[in-house]
Amino acid sequence: MISIGTANEKGTAIVTCAFTDEDSNTVVPSSITWTLVDKNQNIINSREQVSASPASSIEIVLSGDDLKITERERNYGSADRYIVIEAVYDSGAGSNLPLKEQSYFEIENLKYIGE
């Protein structure tokens, strides 16, 4: 499960990821990576295949340029983003099982942001 609150342009957002198996039991994956992309699958702020320490739940902190709105997005009220999580876990169903999940969120285009 991935949960993210509201993200404001160039602010800070915390993405919480809790890992469970097919029976909803908590698991600790052996590997975890995440990638931040826009709706056209462009990598944002070089955040591609970022490793996270294995745990049953992780928090990913996005801030600054992670939540920057590009010039081409400037005319819209918000910008679309996806965080993609990839992990490998073991359960009663087998070993080295792939877990792939994504969560959509919007970045609010604030009226004025100082540099």
Describe the structure.
- By secondary structure, this protein is mostly beta strands.
- It has a single domain, classed as Macroglobulin (MG2) domain (Immunoglobulin-like, Sandwich).
- The protein has a five-stranded mixed β-sheet, with no helix packed on it. A three-stranded antiparallel β-sheet has the order 1-3-6, with no helix packed on it.
- Strand 7 and strand 8 form a beta hairpin.
- The radius of gyration is 16 Å and the shape is elongated.
How would you sum up this structure in a few lines?
With 115 residues, the chain is mainly beta.
Low-confidence stretches: none
Main-sheet strand order equals: 2-8-7-4-5
The overall number of domains is 1
Order of helices and strands: EEEEEEEE
Please give the number of β-strands. 8
The CATH topology, please? Immunoglobulin-like
Main pleated-sheet profile: 5 strands, mixed
- Helix content range of the residues, please? under 10%
- Note the beta-strand portion: over 45%
Radius of gyration: 16 Å
Core attributes:
115 residues; mainly beta; five-stranded mixed beta sheet; three-stranded antiparallel beta sheet; elongated
Please render the helix and strand layout as text.
Elements: E1 2-4, E2 7-8, E3 12-18, E4 31-38, E5 50-52, E6 57-63, E7 78-91, E8 94-108
Parallel strand pairs: 2-8
Antiparallel strand pairs: 1-3, 3-6, 4-5, 4-7, 7-8
